[in-house]
């Protein structure tokens, strides 16, 4: 089939400088949801009709399999499809989708396209409140005869609750003729795509209807209110999918997945966590409340306590992380690593069983196994212009409040005394300490404020 995605509408009611179809839903542009679903149907051609000011849509979304069609000015949905005609392949069916109806499911579209083999097929749904939509007019035998827009409808027609979702599958061979015959003699002075339904009936071609599994599939976005409503629908869908896979969610209404979340067996996720990009949680991982994970992999059996923030990082199995831990890009933790509160890691590797439990900054470091990093330890990795590496070998013990001025190496089994400022390599199996000797001065007096 051919697929045409209509995305030329302005989206005035979004009150935004960003074109409507670029607004994110579950971390992905509205139109990208539609494009991805369209791709899953392997169309012969995939056209996107975009409008004036929509250049940003094209540059943001462009890919080799997309044909871009500028519609300027925008004279209606029929006019929009007409602009795409020269780009359509010779596939027998052309499917029309809306760029601002993001939650449509591939399964629904397959049924619609199936219904269109020797017919024109429209996706319809019955709504308790059909206000604003085009209505499906059927004859006494229940056969569809035409679609009437709200603004052109009689009072009787407005009482019809079956509405046009706008999504339809059309016989490509008839399109040019039908679109050529459209007129804009209607309440909105637009060329309505919906008018071809009446033409199909007149030509003796059957008109069939298909219906979505859930009405939420065909909800459109015209305002921030609707965008927020659809976000909840999308998040709930993802949460239900996770629950069905066996993930335990403290509350399926309080999780946000803005990308892909892959979970092993017996994963638990507490409330208010945000997952972005691709996140993998292996078997029996537990995520505490209010954690943020972006492009991360968490090894089997690891536990993240509340408010941990993890980006472009890998946590090995059986890790104990947080609360308030920050793992920045390039962090790689091996098995059984403990990272405690207010510890920031960047571009650093920690081998198995190493611990940094309190208040530390570890940047550009390679740390061996069973190393203990004391509270307040800082790798001074940056001189204002260049970054330098810190190496800490297996079984080293870094005393509290130590600064490691990189480049520097702490040898295997070495101990650094608390408060050390390390500027030269520390030899293995040795205590290195750099602080001044402690003295007490008898009779010393604090400075006094002058009496007035
Ligand atoms: C359209 C349908 C209506 C249906 C409703 C469902 C027609 C005439 N009416 O009405 O039966 O119930 O959708 O939401 O088709 N667009 C363009 N170029 C244009 C006009 C629109 O690309 O010149 C795109 C818009 O970006 C949008 C879609 O087509 O994605 C629908 O446009 P919209 O103005 O929302 O259509 P409605 O008047 O609501
Ligand atoms: Ca609309």
Automatic annotation (TrEMBL):
Stretches the record annotates as Linker: 225-245
Stretches assigned to the MobA-like NTP transferase domain: 4-120
Q: Where is this region: Pyrophosphorylase?
A: 1-224
Q: Which GO terms describe its molecular function?
A: glucosamine-1-phosphate N-acetyltransferase activity; magnesium ion binding; UDP-N-acetylglucosamine diphosphorylase activity
Cofactor(s) required, per the database record: Mg(2+)
Q: Which GO terms describe its biological process?
A: cell morphogenesis; cell wall organization; lipid A biosynthetic process; peptidoglycan biosynthetic process; regulation of cell shape; UDP-N-acetylglucosamine biosynthetic process
The UniProt record lists the EC number as: 2.7.7.23, 2.3.1.157
Locations listed in the record = Cytoplasm
Role this protein plays: Catalyzes the last two sequential reactions in the de novo biosynthetic pathway for UDP-N-acetylglucosamine (UDP-GlcNAc). The C-terminal domain catalyzes the transfer of acetyl group from acetyl coenzyme A to glucosamine-1-phosphate (GlcN-1-P) to produce N-acetylglucosamine-1-phosphate (GlcNAc-1-P), which is converted into UDP-GlcNAc by the transfer of uridine 5-monophosphate (from uridine 5-triphosphate), a reaction catalyzed by the N-terminal domain.
- Protein name per its UniProtKB record: Bifunctional protein GlmU
Q: Provide the species name.
A: Candidatus Accumulibacter proximus
């Amino acid at each position: 089939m051919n697929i045409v995605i209509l995305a030329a509408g302005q989206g005035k009611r979004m009150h935004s400088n960003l074109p409507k179809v670029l607004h994110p839903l579950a971390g992905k542009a509205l139109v990208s949801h539609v494009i991805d679903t369209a791709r899953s149907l392997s169309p012969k051609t995939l056209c996107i009709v975009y409008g004036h000011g929509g250049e940003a849509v094209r540059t943001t979304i462009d890919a080799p399999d997309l044909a871009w069609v500028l519609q300027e000015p925008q004279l209606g949905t029929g006019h929009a499809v007409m602009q795409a005609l020269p780009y359509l392949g010779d596939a027998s069916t052309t499917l029309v989708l809306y760029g601002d109806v993001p939650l449509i499911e591939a399964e629904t579209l397959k049924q619609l396209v199936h219904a269109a083999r020797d017919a024109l097929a429209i996706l319809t749904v019955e709504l308790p409140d059909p206000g604003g939509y085009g209505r499906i007019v059927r004859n006494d035998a229940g056969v569809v005869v035409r679609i009437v827009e709200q603004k052109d409808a009689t009072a009787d027609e407005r009482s019809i609750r079956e509405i046009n979702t706008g999504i339809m599958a059309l016989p490509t061979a008839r399109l040019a003729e039908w679109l050529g015959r459209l007129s804009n003699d209607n309440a909105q002075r637009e060329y309505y795509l919906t008018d071809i339904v009446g033409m199909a009936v007149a030509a003796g071609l059957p008109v069939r209807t298909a219906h979505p599994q859930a009405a939420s599939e065909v909800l459109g976005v015209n305002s921030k209110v609707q965008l927020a409503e659809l976000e909840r629908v999308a998040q709930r869908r993802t949460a239900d999918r996770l629950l069905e896979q066996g993930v335990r969610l403290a509350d399926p209404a309080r999780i946000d997945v803005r990308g892909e979340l892959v979970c092993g067996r017996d994963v638990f996720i507490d409330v208010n966590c945000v997952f972005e990009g691709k996140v993998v949680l292996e078997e029996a991982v537990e995520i505490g409340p209010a954690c943020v994970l972006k492009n991360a992999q968490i090894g089997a059996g690891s536990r993240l306590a509340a408010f941990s923030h993890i980006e472009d990082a890998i946590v090995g199995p059986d890790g104990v992380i947080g609360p308030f831990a920050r793992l920045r890009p390039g962090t790689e933790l091996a098995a059984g690593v403990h990272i405690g509160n207010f510890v920031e890691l960047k571009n650093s590797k920690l081998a198995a069983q190493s611990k940094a439990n309190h208040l530390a900054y570890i940047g550009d470091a390679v740390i061996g196994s069973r190393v203990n990093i004391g509270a307040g330890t800082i790798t001074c990795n940056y001189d204002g212009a260049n970054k330098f590496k810190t190496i800490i070998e297996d079984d080293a013990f870094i005393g509290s409040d130590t600064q490691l001025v990189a480049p520097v190496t702490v040898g295997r089994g070495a101990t650094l005394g608390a408060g050390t400022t390390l500027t030269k390599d520390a030899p293995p199996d040795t205590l290195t300490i750099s602080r001044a000797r402690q003295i007490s001065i008898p009779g010393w007096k604090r400075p006094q404020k002058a009496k007035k």
